[in-house]
Every structure is written in C-alpha cells, then in structure tokens.
Amino acid sequence: MRFGLVGTGYWAQITHAPALASTPGAQLTAVWGRDPAAAAALAESHGATAHADFDAFLGSVDAVAFAVPPHTQAPLAVRAAQAGKHLLLEKPIALSADDADKLAAAVEEAGVASVVFFTWRFNNEIRAWLTDEQARGGWSGQGWSGGAAIWLGTSNQPGNPFNTPWRQEKGALWDLGPHLVGMLWACLGPVIEVTAVQGKADVVHLVLRHQNGVTSTVTTTQSAPEAATGVTVFVWGEAGRSVMPVELVDPVAALRVAAAELIAEAAVDRPAHPCDVRFGREITKVLAEAEAQLPVRPAE
C-alpha cells in the first residue's frame, strides 16, 4: 500500500517516516507539509516524493498518515477520506466534538479504513496485559472496581521538541489525556460521564464514570518537574491491583503495527478496528466535555 505522510515535524521525523518506510506491505511514497522545504528534505531522506499541492499528493497514494496538530489534521483528513484514501490518524482526531463528527461521517460515507494511533494500544506487552484484564473481567468491569491513570509530563520545558504551539494552547488534557482516557475505556468500558477539575498550571483531574457503573480517575500535566515525571496506569478490585507495563513502549514499532493493521482493515468490506475513527470520536467527545467544565486557559 502506498502511504503518504502529512507533516514534517519532530514526530513525523522520528516515528511516522521511519515506521512507514519499514512496515511490510507499506511504501512511504509521498510527503506533504506546510513547510515545502521541510517536506522536500524528509521525502528525500526516505526516497519519497514531496508535493506542494495537497490534491496532487492525495492522487499519488492509497493511504494517508497524519503527523500534524489536530486542528490541522481534521479538515485535511476529511478531504483525504472524500478522495477514497485510508487514514492513519493521530490522537486526538480533532479538538471539538463537531469536527470529530464530521471526520467520522466522511470516513463512514467513503467506506475507507481508519486507525487512530493511540500508541499504547499497538504495543505487544500492553496488549498482552489488556488480554489478561479481559480474561479476569477487566473490560466488562466485573472483575475490577475502578482504575487510575496518571501522566506527569515535562513537554512545557524550554527546548523540549514537543513544546509546540497547539500543546501550549490546549494543555495536557488534549495531548496526554487521549492516551489516559482511551486506556481506562479499554480496561473498564465506555465512558458515559466526566467531571473535570483544574489544578495549578495545566494540571487537570478527571473523574470518569463508565457504562457499567465503575469509576476511574485521570491526572495529567505537561508542566511537571523532571524529578516527578512518569506514567502510571492501573486497575484495582478484588484481585488486587494490576499495573499496565509502560517501560518498553517503542513508538516506531507500535506505528508499524498500526500501519499493518490499517492495511488489513482496508482489505475487508466493512472496516471496524477497535481504535478506528469512531473510537477517536468518542474520546474527543469526553475531552471536549471535560474542557467545557474548566476555566479558560490564559495565554502563555
């Protein structure tokens, strides 16, 4: 399958481009970016073609991978779906419920395959952990009473490659929150209610109520001191506490899995991946509802 890459930034360079170029059954053949010079350089380093015109870019590929901010991704992904291209999307898929609905509708109408790159969901060790939780009732909530997910990040520090304008504006809720809410959803079932509380700086606390009645919590920030940084996700119940393994997550390897599964989804009549655009839409709706409950973030 011929993949085109939208985006030329740090994440595109260290994860998307090398993963797509090394996935069996995939070819990275085209690059499009808002910076033509950067697109040309990235394309050249992987033997692909840089395109200045987005429609020409779409015409040269079968699938499109996105590594751009969510407010840029959403309208471009709609155009790609309408052009019949399969989509490998970044999380969050959009920054509003309305934009997420429009993207999901475009995918549904076009009948194309979609996969959203929730990194942890494509890691073999974490998948084995989730399988174990499912066997013990974790996904249905029958074996677990709740869960907690904490990600204390440092991307707001000067010089951090993830210290980008959209993250400064939207905070950890939208950057790290999709991972945390998405994983608790996978463990404990669909989220039907969220309560959000603002802490200092961009610290956000969420209480999630799941469809089966159990509850879980999320805490996240991008402004943690280096000494406090880290990720912890666990579920708890009669069986004790079960902690998700996060130490060995390789994003390039995970993206190879995501790309391979998109290729497989594209070969079936009615694509329905567990992390497709519909799941991405549901996570976006939870985050949008949480954001609506928080005070307006001051400009940095």
Output the keywords:
12 strands; Dihydrodipicolinate Reductase, domain 2; 300 residues; 41% helix; 2 domains; six-stranded parallel sheet; single chain; Rossmann fold; six-stranded mixed sheet; globular; alpha/beta
- CATH secondary-structure class of the largest domain: Alpha Beta
- Average pLDDT number: 94
Task: List SSEs in N-to-C order.
Answer: EHEHEHEHEHEHEHHHEEEEEHH
Helix content estimate: 40-55%
What would you say this structure looks like, in words?
The model has no long low-confidence stretch (mean pLDDT 94). α4 (70-82) runs parallel beside α5 (97-110) and α9 (177-188) packs across α11. With 300 residues, the chain is an alpha/beta fold. The chain has a 6-stranded parallel beta sheet, sandwiched between helices. The protein has 2 domains: 2-120 and 251-275, NAD(P)-binding Rossmann-like Domain (Rossmann fold), CATH 3.40.50.720; 124-246, Dihydrodipicolinate Reductase, domain 2. Helix content is 41%, strand content 23%. InterPro entries: Gfo/Idh/MocA-like_OxRdtase_N, Gfo/Idh/MocA_oxidrdct_glycsds, GFO_IDH_MocA-like_dom, NAD(P)-bd_dom_sf. One of its GO terms (molecular function) is oxidoreductase activity. Keywords: Oxidoreductase. This is Gfo/Idh/MocA family oxidoreductase.
